[in-house]
Every structure is written in structure tokens, then in C-alpha cells.
Design goal:
This protein is an all-alpha fold. It contains two helices and no strands. The chain is rod-shaped, with a radius of gyration of 42 Å. The termini are far apart. The model has no long low-confidence stretch (mean pLDDT 82).
């Protein structure tokens, strides 16, 4: 939103009143209305700046919250011991067989 100029609001109000049949002439009453419109324009501009800053801060906090949720809910990587990869041409090695025990003869 573009900021409102101080005199812009007064011009719109005086134009509205002129359309309704009330003309604001220079005087204390018109000066009071102009001062009120100036204060209102300042309040609108300041609140708009505050909303813009609040939105930026909210976006930062929202991103931090999303990151924390992602870290807590993301699947954990499985920890497996690394196995040496076999090439396509290599054959699996045969196991060495244990020597058989000799049977004892009964006496």
C-alpha cells in the first residue's frame, strides 16, 4: 500500500462534503478537520509500516518453525555398515571348511 499524504485525506473529505452540499471554507473549523485528517493519515501510515515489519518477522519465525518440524519428523537415515561391493566378473569366495574331528574308537 502506498503511504497517504497528509493533505490528501483532507482533500477527499472536503470533496465528499462538497458533494453532500457542505463547503469547507478557511477558518478554525476547517483547520481542525485538516489537523484531524493529518493525524489520521500519520496513524494509517505508521500502522502500515508496523504491519509490514510484523509480517516480515512472522515469516522468519514461521520458517524457523517449519525447519524445526521438518528436523523432528524427517525419516532418519538407516545406519548400515558398509559392505565391499562385488564386481560383476568376480565370483563369491567359497568358505573354508573346518577339518572334521576323528571319531574315537571305543576300547
Amino acid at each position: 500500500m502506498k503511504p497517504i499524504e497528509k493533505n490528501e485525506l483532507y482533500e477527499h473529505v472536503s470533496g465528499f462534503l462538497k458533494g453532500k452540499g457542505v463547503e469547507l471554507k478557511a477558518g478554525s473549523y476547517a483547520n481542525s478537520i485538516q489537523a484531524g485528517c493529518s493525524l489520521l493519515a500519520d496513524a494509517i501510515n505508521l500502522s502500515q509500516q508496523g504491519l509490514t515489519r510484523a509480517k516480515a518477522g512472522l515469516d522468519v519465525k514461521l520458517d524457523q518453525m517449519r525447519q524445526a518440524i521438518h528436523e523432528k519428523t524427517a525419516p532418519k537415515a538407516a545406519k548400515r555398515p558398509a559392505k565391499p561391493a562385488q564386481s560383476a566378473n568376480s565370483k563369491p569366495k567359497a568358505r573354508a571348511q573346518k577339518p572334521k574331528k576323528a571319531k574315537r574308537a571305543k576300547a
